[in-house]
Design goal:
Blueprint (H helix, E strand, L loop, with lengths): L7 E6 L12 H20 L5 E6 L7 H6 L2 H7 L5 H6 L1
Parallel strand pairs: 1-2
Length: 90
């Protein structure tokens, strides 16, 4: 006990906004870009140790908060299964 593992995985949850830009996302995007860089740096530092370091960058999820925030075409892209009347009024 107390020793280091000889193998394992570190998986960080980044975001697509760490590599692309959108309106009003500068601080969030900057933090995710830093996480992506940190992931790469740690992967290099731990190379050969048996510990694999990766990041996943999911896109936007159609949560209630996001759907209430987005309007128009941006909202419709997240709700392809909405009814015709609902999509027109978005």
């Amino acid at each position: 006990m107390g020793g280091f593992r000889s193998s394992g995985r570190i998986i960080n949850v980044a975001s697509q906004l760490g590599t692309v830009t959108d309106v009003n996302t500068s601080l969030y995007g900057m933090s995710k870009a830093a996480l992506i860089y940190l992931t790469r740096a740690i992967a290099v530092e731990l190379a050969g140790s048996g510990i694999i370091v990766n990041a996943v960058s999911p896109g936007t999820s159609a949560t209630v908060f996001i759907l209430e925030t987005l309007t128009g075409a941006r909202r419709r892209r997240l709700t392809p299964s909405c009814g015709a009347d609902e999509c027109r009024s978005a």
